[in-house]
Design brief:
Layout: H1 3-21, H2 27-34, H3 39-46, H4 48-66, H5 70-88, H6 94-121, H7 126-150, H8 158-174, H9 191-195, H10 206-235, H11 241-245, H12 247-288, H13 297-304, H14 306-324, H15 330-359, H16 368-389
Helix pairs in contact: 1-6, 1-7, 1-8, 2-10, 3-15, 4-6, 4-15, 5-6, 5-8, 7-12, 10-14, 10-15, 10-16, 12-13, 12-14, 12-16, 14-15
Length: about 400
């Protein structure tokens, strides 16, 4: 991949993730403080990305793979998204807000697969070049958070207008990307392959089944974090919340770079246990935090653990699935992992986070210690379950696990 092409893909990934970062982390504060939506509705709103993740494989697997060039579909989806995001900024009733948000997240989540398709199609060495391109995802998210704080949009519909503008730019820019034609025009469409159902045979292995169930369950703490962290910090008197939460994306880069050095020493099981433990520590810190200048370090340490929480669960998880599955079902296994995590896991987690927040209210006030203890306790239990049931088997000579189908 030429340096110029790398820069073009950097801009693509930067803009794509800037759009998401402009509204996702702070939407809970806006919905709670400005729109007065209850906790269950906030949870449902954050679960919309999970619905988008469930529907996206059909858009990418059917339309982009067979009928429309990836870069053109990506541009069209972002232009539609720009209109939907602006519409969201004008809505104050959940009955209209939620359907539009659902429609938007379907269009946006499909873009994840499309940006990957465009990059990988033009990459000569995907293993080396793809991670370099994707580093700009964190940079885009950080830039969005800094801008949201700079213009004080944490509790304003302006966050959606900023995202709308970025989506408009991304939509136009997408049409300038290298042509990426459909690659499976004559391939048969299989519901099983789109949803990853062909990989269900891997559940015969106890370790793989344990990994998938724990991957599903760990999405509950992840959902609690994104649904309520910005509001939690705002109520604790922290200013420029969006900018400070981008420390999590900074740590993403750091822990991702550390992963190749730690993996040979700790193994897959050690890395995954480290990620689960990080979630327990993170929410334990939030639960113990009291509004005091001497304790504010707890908030920042919890945020800075984000790279370990995310990369050592989800990035390591995708690597484990890739090496565990045989060549014939590798794509199906990755699709199934996405359904368990970004789809079902995030939907259940977002819904549950809203229910817990609403049920723990006292005189209309959120009880943060109770809210954070739920995901902390879940992560703590998962440490022992995963340690007892998961076995990290060595790879065979062809790069797959010896028990892979």
């Amino acid at each position: 991949m030429s340096p110029l092409l790398v820069v073009r893909f950097w801009i693509m990934v930067f803009l794509h993730y800037f759009v998401w970062g402009a509204w996702y982390a702070t939407m809970g504060t806006y919905m709670t403080k400005s729109l007065n939506f209850p906790g269950e509705q906030v949870g449902l709103a954050y679960g919309s990305t999970a619905v988008g993740a469930l529907v996206a494989p059909f858009i990418v697997g059917v339309i982009a793979d067979r009928f429309v060039a990836a870069e053109r579909l990506l541009g069209a989806l972002h232009l539609i998204g720009a209109v939907l995001l602006y519409s969201l900024s004008t809505m104050t009733e959940f009955s209209s807000f939620y359907p539009v948000l659902l429609a938007y997240t379907v269009s946006y989540m499909a873009g994840h697969g499309l940006t990957s398709s465009v990059t990988l199609h033009h990459s000569r060495n995907p293993a080396k070049e793809f991670p370099i391109v994707m580093l700009m995802a964190s940079v885009g998210w950080i830039a969005a958070g800094l801008m949201v704080s700079w213009y004080q949009l944490e509790n304003s519909a302006g966050m959606f207008r900023l995202a709308s503008l970025a989506a408009l730019v991304m939509g136009v820019y997408s049409f300038t990307l290298p042509h990426t034609p459909p690659g499976k025009r004559d391939a048969a469409i299989s519901l099983g392959s789109l949803l990853g159902l062909d990989a269900l045979t891997l559940f015969k292995d106890r370790s793989f089944a344990t990994f998938m169930v724990c991957s599903f369950l760990i999405c509950i703490p992840l959902s609690f974090y994104f649904s309520w962290m910005s509001l939690f910090m705002a109520e604790m008197g922290v200013t420029n919340v969006a900018a400070k939460m981008t420390l999590g994306q900074v740590s993403d880069v750091v822990f991702l770079l550390l992963l190749p050095f730690l993996l040979p020493r700790l193994g897959v099981k050690g890395i995954l246990l480290l990620g689960i433990s990080a979630w327990a520590v993170r929410f334990g810190l939030f639960a113990l935090y009291q509004q005091s200048p001497t304790m504010v370090w707890m908030l920042y340490v919890g945020i800075l653990l984000h790279g370990m929480c995310y990369d050592y669960i989800f990035v390591m998880g995708r690597m484990y699935v890739d090496r565990h599955a045989g060549e014939s079902i590798r794509s199906a296994a990755q699709g199934l992992h996405a359904i368990f995590t970004l789809g079902a896991g995030m939907f259940v987690g977002s819904w549950l986070s809203g229910v817990v927040a609403e049920q723990t209210k006292v005189n209309g006030d959120l009880q943060w210690q109770s809210i954070w203890l739920i995901p902390a306790g879940l992560a703590l239990v998962m440490i022992f379950v995963f340690a007892a049931l998961f076995t990290d088997r060595p790879q065979s000579a062809n790069g797959a696990s010896p028990h892979a189908a």
